[in-house]
Amino acid sequence: MVNTLPTKEARLVKQGHLKNTLTPFPVHYFTTTPRLTVMGAGAWGSALATVASRNAHPVRLWSRRDGEPLSSAIADADVILCAVSMKGVPSVIAQLKACDIPPEKIILTATKGLDPKTTQTPSQLWQATFPHNPIAVLSGPNLSQEIEQGLPATTVVASQDEAAAQLVQSIFSSETFRVYLNTDPLGTELGGTLKNIMAIAAGVCDGLNLGTNAKAGLLTRALPEMIRIGTHLGASAETFFGLSGLGDLLATCNGTLSRNYRVGLGLAQGKDLKTVLMELQSTAEGVNTTRVLVDLAHQQQIPVPIARQVCRLLDGKITPMTAVQALMERELKAE
Questions:
Q1: Model-level pTM?
Q2: CA dihedral defined by 316, 321, 325, 328, rounded to 10 degrees?
Q3: 60 vs 36, 70, 77, 172, CA distance in Å?
Q4: pLDDT value of residue 15
Q5: How far apart are CA 110 and CA 85, in angstroms?
Q6: C-beta of residue 172 within 8 angstroms of C-beta of residue 185
Q7: Spans in the chain with pLDDT lower than 50
Q8: What's the DSSP call for residue 239?
Q9: How many CA atoms lie within 13 A of 290 on its CB side?
Q10: Domains of the chain by range and CATH?
Q11: What is the CA radius of gyration of the chain?
């Protein structure tokens, strides 16, 4: 396979208006059609497996409940994709470590969350355990139900190993699923992680029928809060203006397909958190992320006014309306 750019981009590169930072794939990536193993058979893992299958890539879908040894499921994989919930990541990492995988296998994480024990992102946990393997992050405005239906969507694959990112791009790119690349995996991952907190707040806003003005104000202030956290932790501010930041924020805060949005919506309707989570029948990563982030922000003195009010709401310390009023009553200052 040859590294190519779309015609318009190739012309811009030739004219000197756009820098071609892509590098050719290593030869060993193209001895066969790239093979994928997806760890995690939930909605998100299944959706990504469907995308790769539609592109005629061999795909194996592995679940801890199936009983198949992980070692056999990943034996022939070129890319190992982790799509389990945040709480399951450490145990899956431990299982994969026991498989003694070779360094050329690419590990792709699509989990959005923060580890309560270390406050690290999934990719940081993976990189620490597999320092010699390429680690990539996939994140974007990707509601799994729409992707399963074949509706148009875009996403980002980020890695400091450009060849690995390009291989992942080749597996998932199609006419209905456009994959972009960048070299900021931490920022890409944090964008998808932090927006879940903001989605809970957006659900509260809509559940209280506060109107378009209030929600616009909330989302406008949510993005700087995400950037403030991300840059403090070492990510690039520019990443948050892309698909994995602003794009994912808009998608997740504007529809009932988002589980985190539905958490906020349910709380605003007077339900307690336990009932809301029971009705979801799936994981809302924003609940855990909010609590981990607020603890981290307290330790490192990062201002997180929205996340802090969401945390107090989740912990039952305030009502939804009190949370909104607390944000509106903050000290006056320049934008």
A1: 0.88
A2: 110
A3: 6, 11, 8, 15
A4: 36
A5: 9
A6: no
A7: 1-30
A8: G
A9: 25
A10: 7-183 (3.40.50.720), 187-328 (1.10.1040.10)
A11: 20
How remote is the C-alpha of 73 from its chain's centroid? Answer: 24
300 CB contacts (<8 Å, ≥6 apart)?
232
At residue 11, the pLDDT reads 35
The first and second tokens of residue 50, run together, are 């469907």
Sheet holding 59-62, edge to edge: 59-62, 36-39, 79-82, 106-109, 135-139, 153-158, 177-182
Helices (H), 55-153: 70-73, 89-98, 122-129, 144-148
Rounded to 5°, angle at Cα 41 from 52 and 256: 90
Angle at which helix 212-232 crosses helix 285-300, to 10 degrees, equals: 60
Tokens read off for 265: 């919506």
Structure tokens at 97: 């470590």
Q: Catalytic amino acids?
A: 195
User: Would you say how long the chain is, in residues?
Assistant: 335
Q: What's the CA gap between 126 and 82, in Å, rounded?
A: 10
DSSP designation for 238? G
Paired tokens of 292? 């981990």
**DSSP-assigned states of every residue in 164-177:** HHHHHHHHH--SSE
3-state DSSP call for residue 58? coil
Cα–Cα distance for residue pair 192/250, rounded to 1 Å: 11
Local structure of residue 284 (DSSP, 8 states): -
83-98 burial code (b ≥16 CB/10 A, e <16): bbbbebbbebbeebee
Residue type, 45: G
Count of alpha carbons within 13 Å of 85, Cβ hemisphere only? 13
What pLDDT does 211 receive?
A: 95
Please give the angle made by the CA atoms of 325, 251 and 135, to the nearest 5 degrees: 110
